[in-house]
């Protein structure tokens, strides 16, 4: 029997157009906000005008009296409990109190959108305004107003602080001798770094369509990264049994983390239930920006110790993240900042201490990188300070200390494959690292580097592979392609496992009624984690195909070979010209022997931390988190000394993906991730004044366009097989973003000698820095 | 809401006079965005798109150009007759937002809106343009410098609208330049400098400078120009002119930059603008 | 309500709508042409770009009543007979499409641009698409796609 290696070459390592590219090009792809149902109503929200206030009463009579209004809901209509992945502290609508400006308080369903919006404004809510804490400093101050009086009663899956006011989570990890390890250092560098709040700015604002059927089941089409998390949130938040909730994902216009947990689904379901009619909610950009999520702003104090020869010996990181008004993923994001605090290096002594703090503003949550961009900006910037102090080339310093396969990560997990050194060498050579760059008068050019590590196996996934009557395959995984290309890559893997062309595999729409469980599209996990399940399911189908074929061809299974395109032949000497097609086998199974051919696979990584290696307190379980992926980036910038503007000229991004299933899609992830990281580094920041977001629009919140981005972003794919995966893959969704900010910051320093410790590196900050430096 | 599509300017003025809550609709680039955001609720819109005379460009007897109010930014950005000193208008129009918006937005709409962060007002002041206004009591002409009175406030009286912009002939050797700095391409300016400059034998023979996004209206300081005229645009002269302009500026603190930063940019962008306009030593 | 007719993708459409309805809302809600997307509703992102008498405009900044009688082409009108247009095909072949939400506007802008400038430089392509924001691609493959379409039409 030929091994997978030979049967797969037709489908893997190639870049066929994405399955859904043509419909997206044609404009016929359907997103949630494009869908309509007969009798469908339109939803509108009423949101909080206060950062912090007690809700005393509602008067919805005027809204209900408006012709065309079919339902109004408030917290009084909530039949379920609290939701939240790691700390259940949030309800479908603000209840009892509002905790940030823009928090949904009530909602209306009406015949048309204009009526719904008008009616929402007619809802009268009586508030008692409370003192607010809109920054971490205010929230942690003595006597600060407490956001969650019932915090102790909330269900949490981590050891939470007790009686510490607004402190949502605290965690600590200590490796080696911790801070005592600094006694081995010849040189110590310490600094405090600040990172801003970045908005995901997916192009599709949150959209939901919910409809109850006559059987009392609700179907929810929504802009989500996980149909199963959506289902679970509706179940928990509204008390509807899971069997009565069907969640479907049509095309999704980007997510980047924000659409992983609940968004507008719960309130839309409430309206649909109360009105007895289908309801569609489509957020305006302003509503999306003020009520969804953003990347955590925070402060990171970082200290690094090195020997004179550049050997890194100790690292300390103390992190304060602003979590916003609800926990959401904040404790987990904070844990992951600590997870990456040591960086990609074999530093023996580490102490990482993190805090997440409730404040009266928008919840901060998951965003591409999940804590890693914050940690990496600080730590990778500081590494260049060490390099400068020691007179060592920044890439040399990184290579000298690079972690390697077989070593343990912070937490104790064993590194299975690692191309960190190769990544650094690649970007060094490709960028012609040592060549000095000239710029026009008044401008300076320089190169900067950053290395990064990220996870790619996380939580559970399943796959169902079915043989259809004509010999084709339908793959059903329940994983949502939010634009990254997983539908295509998973289909390629499925095709490869069965020796098929990708055209012979159909991809099922994610639907909780039929798909196996899948945690979600996040954590750079889908290709690795779902890929494992796809392989297992496909292997079950393959075994059944072979069993049938052996009976049909009257030979032993060992004499069979899987031939490209869906055929199984006999492989004996002398050659016998006998083979059966998958269609023949399907016919036999459906009409004669054995019944339908179906395979199902499940997977969850299990790689528990090693308490002997790292002492950890306050962490969520990291057992189902593993397989690290490595990369390095070099960026060339040009700094305008007149204005302080930093322009990215060129970027070289080397990422080890184990094996590229679809190299074109990998390159696209690298391009897009890098540019999103460039925005984080240079121009993107949500700004609040007294709890009010001052730039809730694309007019005022700016991210890079075609004229702000380099034409040359060199995506360099490294392939060091990850043996724990049947196709040797690792994830690449997040790492390209992670390196951008520190690499750009280091390039700014190389160009001008200015070292800033705060992103975004706005022209104003850069110009002031240049003037102060003199 | 009523919607009118008059075909003559007089009809438009009559409609506007009849309903003080009515608004003239030019291209819509700003007005429709404001409608979408529910920031305005006019009782009626009087569309100016069907009024032929607002779409014309013609040479004036004096040798300048008369630009109809309904000309799009895209048209101005590619108008070959906007040369010499008047190129400042072409350059400013070419840097407004993005191509699709430039196809929608109009000269008259931008002038009437009077947003100091937008690109045309400063260019108009630098070019010493005259705004031709039509109203119930006839037409009148207002120098651009006096037209912009305050933030989003112009000299337009009730029932009046912008009919045209008249650009004077610029000095023979004048060069216009619009220097814009923004957070990203296509954003409103953090600060901009519009300049019309003529040099003769190495000395500045004519200069008009207006700053955009430096205050509630375009900022022009006659004394600053006087300091430059006759000079070789040496660093000292520019620095003194910049100091005068800086002193007259009163920018806002907002997401596009702090007021302090905008003030820091005044001498920096002025120097760059003058050099680009041919004043480099 | 105002009664108007528009010629949309070659077809006369009679509509009755309020004066404040944007062309984008009219396309999406009244004509069920949902290819044009609403991502900012203030003319910044370009996801709603359509051709108005051949010229790209942000449909969210145009009132439907104000373009009565004029000719509109949306993403749905670019291809012929169920086949993708050369520009649409180039975006597929270049791997430019990720989440796809910006793509309708991007492709419409690129189509109008290439008609004006059949042999553009990459810089010119970037200028032409500067009003079309994309959060997935980093723009590299988008520029590649327009170059690909230009190369094919020149061949």
How would you characterize this protein structure?
The complex is a heterotrimer of chains A (774), B (281) and C (155). Chain A has 19 helices and 29 strands. The longest helix of chain A is centred in the C-terminal third of the chain and has 28 residues, at 526-553. In chain A, helix 6 packs across helix 7 (265-275) and helix 9 (330-339) packs parallel to helix 10 (372-390). Chain A is 27% helix and 25% strand. Chain A has 774 residues and is α+β, with helices and mostly antiparallel strands. Chain B is α+β, with helices and mostly antiparallel strands and 281 residues long. Among the domains of chain B are: 1-47, Uridine Diphospho-n-acetylenolpyruvylglucosamine Reductase, domain 2, CATH 3.30.43.10; 175-279, Enolase-like, domain 1. Chain B has 11 helices and 13 strands. In chain B, the strands form 4 sheets. In chain B, strands 4-5-10-6-7 form a 5-stranded antiparallel sheet. Chain B has a 3-stranded parallel sheet with strand order 1-3-2, with helices on one face. In chain B, strands 11-12-13 form a 3-stranded antiparallel sheet. In chain B, helix 9 (222-228) runs antiparallel to helix 10. The mean pLDDT of chain B is 97. By secondary structure, chain C is an alpha+beta fold. Chain C folds into 2 domains: 2-77, Beta-grasp domain (Ubiquitin-like (UB roll)), CATH 3.10.20.30; 86-154, Orthogonal Bundle (DNA polymerase, domain 1), CATH 1.10.150.120. Chain C is 34% helix and 16% strand. Chain C has 5 helices and 5 strands. Chain C has a 5-stranded mixed sheet, sandwiched between helices. In chain C, strand 3 (49-52) and strand 4 (55-58) form a beta hairpin. In chain C, helix 2 packs across helix 5 (140-154). Chain C is globular, with a radius of gyration of 15 Å. The mean pLDDT of chain C is 97. Chains A and C meet through helix 2 and helix 16 of A and helix 2, helix 3, helix 4 and helix 5 of C.
């Amino acid at each position: 029997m030929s091994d997978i290696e030979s049967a797969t070459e037709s489908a893997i390592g190639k870049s066929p157009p994405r399955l859904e590219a043509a419909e997206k090009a044609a404009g016929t792809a359907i997103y949630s906000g494009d869908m309509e149902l007969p009798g469908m109503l339109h939803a509108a929200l009423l949101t909080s005008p206060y950062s912090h206030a007690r809700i005393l009463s509602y008067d919805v009579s005027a809204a209900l009296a408006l012709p065309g209004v079919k339902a109004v809901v408030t917290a009084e209509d909530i039949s379920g409990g609290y939701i939240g992945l790691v700390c259940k502290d949030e309800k479908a609508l603000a209840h009892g109190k509002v905790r940030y400006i823009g928090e949904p308080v009530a909602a209306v369903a009406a015949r048309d959108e204009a009526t719904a919006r008008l009616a929402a404004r007619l809802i009268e809510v009586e508030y008692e305004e409370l003192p607010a804490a809109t920054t971490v400093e205010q929230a942690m101050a003595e006597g600060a107003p407490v956001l969650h009086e019932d915090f102790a009663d909330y269900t949490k899956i981590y050891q939470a602080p007790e009686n510490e006011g607004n402190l949502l989570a605290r965690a600590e990890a200590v490796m080696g001798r911790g801070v005592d390890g600094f006694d081995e250092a010849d040189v110590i560098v310490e600094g405090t770094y600040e990172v801003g709040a970045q908005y995901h700015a997916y192009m599709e604002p949150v959209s939901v369509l919910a409809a109850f059927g006559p059987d009392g089941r609700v179907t929810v089409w929504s802009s989500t990264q996980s149909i199963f998390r959506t289902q679970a949130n509706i179940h928990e938040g509204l008390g509807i049994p899971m069997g009565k909730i069907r969640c479907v994902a049509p095309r999704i216009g980007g997510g980047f983390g924000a659409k992983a947990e609940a968004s507008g689904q719960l309130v839309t379901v409430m309206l649909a239930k109360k009105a007895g009619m289908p309801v569609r909610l489509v957020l305006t950009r302003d509503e999306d920006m003020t009520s969804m999520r953003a990347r955590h702003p925070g402060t990171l104090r970082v200290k690094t110790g090195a020997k004179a020869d550049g050997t890194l010996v100790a690292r300390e990181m103390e992190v304060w993240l602003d979590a916003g008004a609800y926990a959401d993923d904040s404790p987990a994001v904070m844990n992951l900042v600590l997870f990456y605090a040591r960086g990609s290096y074999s530093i023996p002594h580490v102490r990482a201490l993190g805090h997440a703090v409730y404040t009266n503003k928008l919840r901060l949550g998951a965003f591409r990188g999940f804590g890693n961009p914050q940690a990496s900006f600080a730590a990778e910037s500081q590494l260049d300070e060490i390099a400068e102090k020691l007179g060592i080339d920044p890439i040399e310093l990184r290579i000298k200390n690079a972690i390697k396969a077989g070593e343990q990560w912070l937490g104790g997990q064993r590194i299975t494959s690692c191309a960190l050194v190769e990544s650094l060498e690649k970007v060094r050579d490709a960028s012609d690292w040592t060549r000095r760059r000239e710029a026009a008068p008044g401008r300076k050019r320089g190169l900067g580097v950053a290395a990064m590590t990220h996870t790619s196996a996380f939580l559970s996934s399943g796959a169902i592979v079915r043989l259809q009557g004509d010999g084709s395959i339908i793959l059903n995984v329940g994983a949502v392609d939010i634009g990254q290309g997983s539908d295509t890559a998973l289909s390629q893997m499925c095709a490869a496992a069965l020796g098929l062309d990708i055209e012979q595999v159909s991809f099922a729409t994610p639907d909780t009624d039929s798909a196996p469980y899948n945690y979600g599209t996040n954590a750079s996990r889908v290709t690795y984690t779902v890929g494992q399940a796809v392989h297992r399911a496909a292997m079950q189908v393959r075994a059944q195909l072979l069993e049938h074929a052996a009976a049909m061809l009257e030979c032993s299974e060992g004499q069979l070979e899987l031939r490209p395109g869906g055929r199984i032949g006999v492989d004996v000497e002398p050659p016998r010209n006998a083979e059966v097609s998958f269609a023949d086998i399907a016919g036999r199974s459906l009409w004669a022997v054995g019944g339908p051919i179906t395979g199902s696979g499940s997977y969850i990584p299990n790689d528990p931390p090693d308490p002997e290696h790292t002492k950890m307190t306050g962490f969520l379980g990291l057992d189902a988190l593993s397989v690290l992926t490595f990369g390095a980036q070099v960026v060339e910038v040009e700094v305008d000394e007149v204005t302080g503007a930093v322009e990215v000229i060129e970027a070289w991004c080397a990422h080890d993906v184990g094996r590229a299933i679809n190299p074109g899609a990998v390159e696209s992830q690298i391009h897009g991730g890098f540019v999103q990281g460039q925005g984080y580094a240079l121009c993107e920041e949500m700004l609040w004044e007294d709890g009010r977001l001052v730039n809730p629009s694309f007019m005022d919140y700016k991210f890079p366009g075609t004229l702000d981005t380099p034409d040359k972003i060199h995506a360099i794919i490294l392939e060091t097989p990850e043996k724990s995966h049947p196709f040797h893959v690792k994830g690449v969704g997040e790492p390209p973003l992670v390196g951008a900010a520190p690499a750009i910051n280091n390039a700014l320093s190389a160009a001008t000698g200015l070292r800033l410790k705060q992103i975004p590196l706005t022209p104003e900050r850069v110009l002031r820095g240049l003037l102060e430096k003199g | 809401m009523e919607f009118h599509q008059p075909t003559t300017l007089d009809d438009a003025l009559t409609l506007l006079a009849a309903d003080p809550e009515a608004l003239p609709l030019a291209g819509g680039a700003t007005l429709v965005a404001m409608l979408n955001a529910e920031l305005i609720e006019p009782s009626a819109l009087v569309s100016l798109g069907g009024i032929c005379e607002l779409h014309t460009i013609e040479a004036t007897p004096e040798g300048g150009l008369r630009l109809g109010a309904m000309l799009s930014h895209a048209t101005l950005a590619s108008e070959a007759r906007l040369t010499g000193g008047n190129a400042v208008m072409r350059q400013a129009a070419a840097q407004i937002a993005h191509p699709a918006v430039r196809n929608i937005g109009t000269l008259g709409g931008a002038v009437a809106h009077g947003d100091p962060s937008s690109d045309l007002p400063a260019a108009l002041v630098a070019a010493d343009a005259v705004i031709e206004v039509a109203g119930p009591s006839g037409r009148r002409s207002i120098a651009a410098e006096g037209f912009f009175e305050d933030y989003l406030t112009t000299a337009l009286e009730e029932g009046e609208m912008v009919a045209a912009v008249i650009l004077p002939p610029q000095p023979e050797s004048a060069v216009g330049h619009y220097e814009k700095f923004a957070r990203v391409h296509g954003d409103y300016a953090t600060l901009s400098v519009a300049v019309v400059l003529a040099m003769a034998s190495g000395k500045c023979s004519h200069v008009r400078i207006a700053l955009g996004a430096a205050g509630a209206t375009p900022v022009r300081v006659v004394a600053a120009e006087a300091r430059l005229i006759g000079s070789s645009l040496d660093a000292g002269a520019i620095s003194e002119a910049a100091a005068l302009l800086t002193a007259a500026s009163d920018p806002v603190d907002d997401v596009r930059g702090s007021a302090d930063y905008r003030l820091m940019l005044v001498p920096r962008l002025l120097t760059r603008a003058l050099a680009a306009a041919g004043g480099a030593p | 309500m105002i009664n108007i007719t528009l010629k949309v993708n070659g077809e006369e459409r009679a509509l009755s709508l309020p004066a404040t309805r944007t062309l984008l809302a009219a396309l999406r809600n009244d004509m069920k042409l949902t290819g044009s997307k609403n991502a900012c509703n203030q003319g910044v992102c370009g996801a709603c770009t359509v051709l108005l008498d051949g010229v790209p405009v942000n449909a969210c900044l145009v009132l439907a009543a104000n373009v009565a009688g004029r000719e509109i082409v949306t993403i749905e009108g670019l291809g012929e007979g169920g086949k993708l247009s050369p520009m649409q095909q180039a975006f597929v072949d270049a791997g430019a499409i990720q989440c796809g939400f910006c793509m309708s506007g991007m492709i419409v802008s690129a189509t109008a641009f290439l008609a004006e400038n059949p042999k553009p430089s990459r810089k010119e392509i970037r200028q032409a698409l500067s009003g079309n924001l994309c959060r997935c691609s980093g723009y590299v493959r988008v520029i590649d796609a327009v170059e690909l379409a230009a190369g094919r039409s020149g061949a």
